[in-house]
């Protein structure tokens, strides 16, 4: 972080609080196991990334999970779910941000979101298979069958990515002027 | 929609555990998580159970309250319990019923592993029940302070975290208001196809973002006007004090680790 930028710090804190509140409004999808839930808390992180730079987005993802951990505690003792959520969020927003940075238009954003969704879905399937499901097995002794990666986790992440993309595109079109006005008022982190 | 979500699980009370320094609690829990994996026989698990329930007793948190909200966990524990009972096939057969055979080792594994998991959850929920989130943040900041030498922005991260904590209740109220206003206009947030749900959330998000940035700007100006210039040389309103009992608690966990190490088979 370069110069002390109070406004950026405060905004990141504020967006983390928004993300946390949105995280409380989560809902499970029909047909999926209950630990896979959809919420819209990645949207504030994406907004933070686009307005204040990628680091801001990563921080919002971090604080959102930390806040949830501090206030509700972890059902598993060791916060595997929170770590997984943080990694998913970062893997979704970073590619989206960098592609959008290359092509700054609505079309660019659409491509970026589709790419972000695909990258997240693939990466999270791999990570779940090799890291998170074994972690659940070690810490919670909750053996999740590894076929679930293909039958649940992959389609879940694609569905979630599509929903995020739809919401963010509508949001972006409606708030374009506001976003570009905000962008110019921050030193980028 | 929001009323049912009480913010956090912190129970302000007067007890030994409540009075402990948040740093001490964080240290104790970290050590405990490491120590718990040492247990592997009846005696060591007995000591762990004793320690856990002594901590709960010292916190004066009603056990019923602690178990509340862990019903989801109960099913997982039950599931893993039976998984181990039926699929571990070592040791002597102690029970046969038709095709079901329960092995000694399987039963032991099932009980121990479920117990370990249960104790882990109890101890970690004790932290969030006896310590307010802002205290945990302060504790973490203080514990991470040595990282400042590596130019890791500890103070800035803690500041963002505190701001988020301060504004969560405000933003919750606001979210609630917006949700109700939209519902009064006929928006349905809890039903409908996925596409409908995605569309219905946009009118909630836009006012939330705009007001969040407005608040951020006002707060930043207020802070600048009062001469905020980062963590260096800044004094604190909430002071953390490491007392004798905190050292005692840390020593107790180390003792627990020693005992488990000696008595494990």
Automatic annotation (TrEMBL), chain A:
Recorded topology in the membrane: Multi-pass membrane protein
InterPro entries: ECF_trnsprt_substrate-spec (IPR024529), RibU (IPR025720)
A GO-annotated cellular component: plasma membrane
Pfam family, one: ECF_trnsprt
Compartments in which it is found: Cell membrane
Stretches that traverse the bilayer: 6-25, 45-63, 83-100, 112-132, 152-173
Alphabetized UniProt keyword annotations: Cell membrane, Membrane, Transmembrane, Transmembrane helix, Transport
Alphabetized GO MF terms: riboflavin transmembrane transporter activity
Family named by the database record: Belongs to the prokaryotic riboflavin transporter (P-RFT) (TC 2.A.87) family.
Function of the protein: Probably a riboflavin-binding protein that interacts with the energy-coupling factor (ECF) ABC-transporter complex.
Protein name per Swiss-Prot or TrEMBL: Riboflavin transporter
Protein species of origin: Perspicuibacillus lycopersici
Taxonomic placement: Bacteria, Bacillati, Bacillota, Bacilli, Bacillales
Automatic annotation (TrEMBL), chain B:
Source taxon at top rank: Bacteria
Location within or outside the cell: Cell membrane
Transport as UniProt keyword: yes
Transmembrane segments: 26-53, 65-87, 107-129, 247-263
Keywords from the UniProt entry: Cell membrane, Membrane, Transmembrane, Transmembrane helix, Transport
Main location: membrane
GO cellular component: plasma membrane
Membrane topology term: Multi-pass membrane protein
Pfam families associated with the record: CbiQ
Any one GO molecular function term: transmembrane transporter activity
InterPro entries: ABC/ECF_trnsptr_transmembrane, ECF_transporter_component, EcfT
PANTHER family: SLL0384 PROTEIN (PTHR34857)
Record note on quaternary structure: Forms a stable energy-coupling factor (ECF) transporter complex composed of 2 membrane-embedded substrate-binding proteins (S component), 2 ATP-binding proteins (A component) and 2 transmembrane proteins (T component).
Job description of the protein: Transmembrane (T) component of an energy-coupling factor (ECF) ABC-transporter complex. Unlike classic ABC transporters this ECF transporter provides the energy necessary to transport a number of different substrates.
Membership in a protein family: Belongs to the energy-coupling factor EcfT family.
Protein name, entry field: Energy-coupling factor transporter transmembrane protein EcfT
Annotated organism of origin: Perspicuibacillus lycopersici
Lineage of origin: Bacteria, Bacillati, Bacillota, Bacilli, Bacillales
């Amino acid at each position: 972080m370069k110069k002390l930028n109070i406004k950026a710090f405060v905004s990141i804190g504020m967006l983390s609080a928004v993300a946390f509140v949105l995280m409380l409004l989560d809902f499970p999808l029909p047909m999926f196991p209950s630990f896979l839930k959809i919420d819209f808390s990645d949207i504030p992180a994406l907004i933070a990334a686009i307005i204040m730079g990628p680091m801001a987005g990563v921080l919002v993802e971090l604080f959102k999970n930390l806040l949830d951990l501090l206030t509700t505690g972890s059902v598993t003792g060791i916060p595997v779910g929170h770590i997984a959520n943080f990694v998913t969020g970062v893997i979704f927003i970073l590619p989206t941000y960098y592609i959008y940075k290359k092509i700054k238009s609505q079309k660019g954003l659409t491509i970026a979101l589709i790419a972000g969704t695909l990258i997240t879905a693939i990466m999270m399937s791999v990570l779940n298979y090799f890291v998170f499901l074994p972690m659940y097995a070690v810490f919670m002794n909750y053996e999740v069958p590894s076929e679930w990666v293909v039958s649940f986790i992959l389609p879940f992440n694609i569905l979630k990515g599509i929903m995020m993309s739809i919401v963010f595109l509508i949001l972006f079109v409606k708030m374009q002027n506001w976003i570009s006005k905000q962008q110019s008022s921050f030193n980028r982190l | 929609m929001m009323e049912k979500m009480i913010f956090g699980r912190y129970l302000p009370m007067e007890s030994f555990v409540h009075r402990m320094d948040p740093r001490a609690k964080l240290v104790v829990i970290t050590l405990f998580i490491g120590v718990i994996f040492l247990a592997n026989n009846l005696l060591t698990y007995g000591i762990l159970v004793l320690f856990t329930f002594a901590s709960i007793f010292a916190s004066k948190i009603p056990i019923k309250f602690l178990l509340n909200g862990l019903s989801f966990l109960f099913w997982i524990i039950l599931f893993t319990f039976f998984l181990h009972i039926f699929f571990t096939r070592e040791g002597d057969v102690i029970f046969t019923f038709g095709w079901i055979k329960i092995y000694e080792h399987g039963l032991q594994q099932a009980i121990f592993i479920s117990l370990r998991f249960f104790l882990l959850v109890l101890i970690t929920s004790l932290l969030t029940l006896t310590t307010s989130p802002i205290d945990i943040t302060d504790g973490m900041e203080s514990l991470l302070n040595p990282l400042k030498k590596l130019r890791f922005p500890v103070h800035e991260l803690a500041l963002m975290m505190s701001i988020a904590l301060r504004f969560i209740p405000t933003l919750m109220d606001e979210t609630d208001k917006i949700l109700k206003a939209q519902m009064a206009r006929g928006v349905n947030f809890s039903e409908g196809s996925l596409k409908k749900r995605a569309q219905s959330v946009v009118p909630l998000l836009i006012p939330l973002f705009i007001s969040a940035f407005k608040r951020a700007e006002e707060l930043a100006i207020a802070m600048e006007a009062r001469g905020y210039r980062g963590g260096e040389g800044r004094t604190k309103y909430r002071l953390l004090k490491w007392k004798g009992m905190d050292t005692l608690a840390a020593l107790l966990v180390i003792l627990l680790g020693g005992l488990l190490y000696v008595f494990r088979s």
